[in-house]
């Protein structure tokens, strides 16, 4: 169970809600993984703006200091990663990739075969499992990449957004399929 990054990352968040901060060593002990693995999980959570690293440990919330001036960029399109729509792909190798929005996350997932994808619910900002999320594709809300793809934890929320902003509500697989086909069309036009 503990070998799945999203499961570990959810546990870390849950534990931190009860005891804040926690040391990396303590997390490694509780998760029964190496501290290297904990560092990788924590790095993913830091990039999602969920936690901050403190000396030897980690605490909930974003850093208030400008200690990390290096801005991460999207692995697919190289644009800056807006905190609100950031996506993290956990690869089988243990590597993590970041994307600027679900559009790029879905495209990357097609070629990288991640073990899990962490996305943010567009309304609540909570981390959701991308594979089980609902997506609104091509609505009127302008994000960084076109066609825009917005992630929701539930079909109901996606459908409610669709009523106001148009677009198509899709599952992970449907949204990915749509993007890949759309992408091919664009490539063929050149
Ligand atoms: Zn991107
Ligand atoms: Zn984007």
Characterization of the model:
This protein has 190 residues and is of the alpha+beta class. It has two domains: 5-60, Orthogonal Bundle (Arc Repressor Mutant, subunit A), CATH 1.10.10.10; 83-189, Beta-Lactamase, CATH 3.30.450. Helix content is 39%, strand content 19%. It is built from six helices and ten strands; from the N terminus they run αβααββββαββββαβα. It has helices at 5-18, 24-31, 35-47, 102-112, 155-165, 172-189, and strands at 22-23, 51-54, 57-60, 87-90, 96-99, 116-120, 127-129, 134-137, 149-152, 168-170. The strands form three sheets. It has a four-stranded antiparallel beta sheet with strand order 5-4-6-7, sandwiched between helices. A three-stranded antiparallel beta sheet has the order 1-3-2. A three-stranded antiparallel beta sheet has the order 9-8-10. A hairpin with a 5-residue loop joins strand 4 (87-90) and strand 5. The radius of gyration is 17 Å and the shape is globular. The N and C termini lie far apart (46 Å). Bound molecules: zinc ion (2 copies). One zinc ion binds next to helix 4.
Provide a brief overview of the structure.
This protein has six helices and ten strands. It is α+β, with helices and mostly antiparallel strands and 190 residues long.
Question: Biggest β-sheet: count, sense, barrel?
Answer: 4 strands, antiparallel
| Intertermini distance | 46 Å
Helix content: 25-40%
* Count of DSSP strands: 10
Question: Which segments are poorly predicted (pLDDT under 50) over 5 or more consecutive residues?
Answer: none
Quote the CATH topology of the largest domain: Beta-Lactamase
Number of helices: 6
Radius of gyration: 17 Å
Strand order in space, largest sheet: 5-4-6-7
Described by the principal axes of the CA atoms, the overall outline is globular
Which small compounds were modeled alongside the protein?
zinc ion
Average pLDDT, to the nearest integer? Answer: 89
Tally of individual domains: 2
Strand content: 15-25%
